[in-house]
Amino acid sequence: MSSNDGNLKFWKKALAVFVPYNSRRRVFLKMVLQLLNHPRQLVYYFRLQKLKRVLYYFNRGGITKVSQILDERLLMGADLRLEVKLKKIINSTQITDFPVLSFPSSATPVVSIIIPVYNQFSYTYICLASIMENSSEVDYEVILADDCSDDLTLQVNDVVKNIRIIRTPKNYGFLKNCNYASSFARGQYILFLNNDTQVQADWLIPMVRLMRENPDIGMTGSKLVYPDGRLQEAGGILWKDGSAWNYGNGSNPALPEFCYVKECDYISGASIMIRTTLWKQLGGFDERFTPAYCEDSDLAFMVRKAGYKVCCQPLSVVIHYEGLSNGISISEGLKAYQRINQSKFYEKWKNELEKNHKPNGEDVFLARDRSQLKKRILVIDHMVPQYDKDAGARNVFMYTKIFIESGLKVTFLPADYYPYQPYTAQLEQLGVEVLYGNYYFKYWKEWIQENAHFFDYFYVNRPHIAVRYIDLLKQYGNGKLIYYGHDLHYLRERREYEVTGNEELLKSSEHWKILEYQLIEKSDIIYVPSTYEKTVLEQAFPEKVIRSIPIYIYEKMETKKCPNIKKKKNLLFVGGFGHPPNIDAVLWFANEIFPHILISYPDIIWYIVGSKPPQEIMNLQSNNIVIKGFVSDEELHSLYQSCRLVVVPLRYGAGVKGKVIESIYEQCPLITTPVGAEGISTLEGVFVVAAADKSMADTIIRLYNDEDVLQNMMSKSPEYINTYFTKKQVIDVLGLDIGISDQKYN
């Protein structure tokens, strides 16, 4: 070792002693060093409001949060970027310098976009241009609410076609102007948009979709971004004293904490959308807040009082030139009403603020999405569930949705911290915060240390993932720890050893058994999908709470006329090839069973569906074997409808097989092995169990042409699914541990 290496180690040890990792001194040193390296950037970034928050966390020991504030700006977050498009402002006093904008006309608009204006035509024009460019997926009308402007706004008809211009008889001020213009709206939704904004691509349809799909949401709003790309707000927080925070102000708007649909206390009125019926029911903005300020916060509280939610829609991105309309000084002009109206707001909503809101700056983790009013669950798995690629991912996705539907606030931690799309965005649109990106990859331990105590439940999947997190969760959290292993890995590998004779598998099986049993000892509740595995574990752990839960969750199936078996032909296998038992099953069936079937049915085709097929599977392609690989859910449904028989020829494995349950749900006749049928009821006769040997070929040959038996199997599918695999059965189990009601599923 060189002297330089020795010196480096000495100084590292000295640094660790005098400036411990994750200490205030360490973060302060980091701040100083970054200030020296990036003086302009940090001085620009740490404005007064941001510095107050940094000091708040610093004084209260939120060291990781301070570190994140530094990292997200200078070190981390470089992998996450929000692309924005900013149109150039046309600064001219001649109306002829503005190109003509011609909006589409609609007799039945879905959205009425109301833009309150008083002068500032250059900004109004660019706002209109951005709307016309980025709103094509929704029928809308634009209402320009002109509050007695005396600039080029008077000539707007010359350059903007097919919009409605509503002019007040006298200068009403912002609030009354909005109320007046709203009486002319024809849309199902009213969207108030400041004229000092530029809407971004696909900004409108996400808000409409959110409201259509969630009738309990009364008002939504956009993620607001400054022209320089920094976040202005992803929803707002109101504290017990009536003061407010723009959540995330100054941060990178692409960070995951700003990218999920969240309930929020209020949304700044620069871009908010409300149901027209609700707006009329509430009587519009409360005119006690005339001429402006706090009317948006008050509206949000009125919406909640009427029984609706207020949510921020992060897919709707709007650039906002904050302060352009009313200035930034609260001592003069319209801005002076901000302090006056804040007092009025506090008096109106004092009881609500005292009851359900936190003191200023306290527990931002909860206040940002109003989750202090809910039970919270942290779901951990190896990655964001790609539910159309394998059974385990589909299971995790289904249960995550159940948690959401049951009123839990869900946070999802994927152990690879990667935002696979479109799956991550789909979770975020359901209201799930997904922890991804460089920051969480680097600081996941610190995040757990600081936030685990906020969660009531931990739902941890798979042994090789659970072992990484379980001790930290128990050390820093007080929530109930639920372990779901998907199957007993040790049992699966021991069975593979029995088939292959590979001694390494036997050693690996023992390793998994030790690991899985340790996890069971440390967990409060253990879930398994298989009734067989439940029995095995109950014998090994008689004092533990072990429950069997459905692997898949379906809506109740209606008993209807099932497909005509005479129109179905060919065989089908479905299973992801990241799972070794599926590779073995397909190769074994192709080499040992399928050749015998071809003798009786030379024209039969066997479709093999599953993601990531290895070369040895691809090599099976022939006139009678079609390797489909990954297919969409829609194409898979078509294959289930057209194929006569699903084969699941597993020789080893463990747990309940998702492909078996899916086949039953799709009402497609099924034949499998004892391993494939393990852990579920076989008494109803909805599928056939055959030995994993050459006799399976004879069974398939006989069954393939027995249309009465096949038709009978299909007809029994709905009752089987309704008995074992609906939301009602899931809630019956979850309700024992998570305290959620099954009322909505009865």
Automatic annotation (TrEMBL):
Pfam families: Glyco_trans_1_4 (PF13692), Glycos_transf_2 (PF00535). GO terms for molecular function: transferase activity. Keywords: Transferase. Residues 112-246 form the Glycosyltransferase 2-like domain. InterPro entries: Glyco_trans_2-like, Nucleotide-diphossugar_trans. This is Glycosyltransferase.
